[in-house]
Design goal:
Blueprint: E1 5-8, H1 12-23, E2 31-34, H2 38-48, E3 51-53, H3 56-60, E4 65-68, H4 75-82, E5 92-95, H5 102-108, E6 114-119, E7 129-135, H6 141-151, E8 155-159, H7 166-174, H8 176-193, H9 198-216, H10 221-227, H11 234-244, H12 247-273
Parallel strand pairs: 1-2, 1-4, 2-3, 4-5, 5-6, 7-8
Antiparallel strand pairs: 6-7
Helix pairs in contact: 4-5, 7-12, 8-9
């Protein structure tokens, strides 16, 4: 894999993507990381033996894919600098910044750019991520494949039908890890209340979460639940309690609240930077 990729922003997510690409045999010489922090660039050079630069515009000129891996608050400034790049339909911009609409990014880049917007989540840092992707009308099939291959270096990637659907992705997989952390936290606390020590309750809750998640990959979770829910057994009593206390309604309301906030943040970020 020799496609030239330029990362603008060299934080944790960029580092994870670079590591995943190299693990998938992408040519190190075809990867460049750009950042204003020389210490950050030095760490990436030492860890991955890639090219680095503090001049993003110059480095991006020859890139096939430009990864916009900066914080949303500085996206406008960075994109306006990159607007100096000549129009090139073969050059793809991929944004991993939360809440930044592709239309705004395109406007800051000078217009007419091929843009894929991504919503990765924090397990991507362990190459166990789930990413939603949306492409604007100027993105070719080959460019979609390129974006997908990059994001699959840190987990799975799912294309949505419309960019607005990324707000739903945010509510499910973007914010989702925190929901599971919270459930593990509550399960640990319940174990302590039932007489287990903190360390034992934590070990049991976390390993159970890992095992259950691993078993669910590629399987029907309803069927999996049925297999471990014996009639008149302990699991059945717990599930019935969840149902009687309207756990489904709580999940629906929680994800709807996250979805609304994702929509609000997109509007706020765009308004602030305009």
């Amino acid at each position: 894999m020799t496609q030239k990729i330029c990362f603008v922003g060299a934080g944790n997510m960029a580092s994870s993507l670079i590591g995943g690409l190299i693990a998938n045999q992408h040519d190190k010489a075809a990867i460049t990381a750009c950042d204003i922090d020389p210490h950050q660039l030095q760490q990436l050079r030492e860890r991955y033996d890639i090219n680095t630069s503090q001049d993003a515009v110059d480095s991006a000129r020859q890139a096939d894919v430009i990864m916009l891996a900066v914080k949303p608050q500085v996206m406008q400034v960075v994109c306006q600098q990159l607007a100096a790049l000549p129009p090139n339909p073969d050059q793809l911009f991929v944004s991993i910044a939360a809440g930044m609409p592709s239309d705004a990014i395109d406007n800051w880049l000078g217009g007419g750019r091929a843009i894929v917007r991504c919503m990765p989540n924090t397990p991507s840092l362990l190459q166990l991520g789930a990413t939603g992707l949306a492409a604007n009308a100027r993105v070719s099939s080959a460019q979609k494949n390129a974006a997908e291959n990059i994001m699959q270096a840190v987990g799975i990637s799912i294309w949505v039908d419309a960019e607005a659907d990324l707000d739903a992705v945010t509510a499910i997989s973007g914010s989702g890890p925190a929901y599971f952390f919270y459930f593990i936290e509550l399960l640990e606390a319940a174990g302590v209340k039932l007489g287990l020590g903190q360390d034992k309750a934590a070990a049991l809750a976390r390993q159970t979460a890992l095992g259950a998640a691993s078993m669910s990959i590629g399987e029907d979770v309803v069927e999996l639940r049925a297999r471990v829910t014996s009639k008149k057994g302990t699991t059945e009593q717990a599930i019935l309690s969840f149902q009687q206390n309207h756990l489904q309604q709580l999940v629906d309301e929680a994800t709807a609240a996250a979805h609304r906030r994702a929509q609000e943040l997109a509007r706020e970020l765009t308004t602030e930077q305009d």
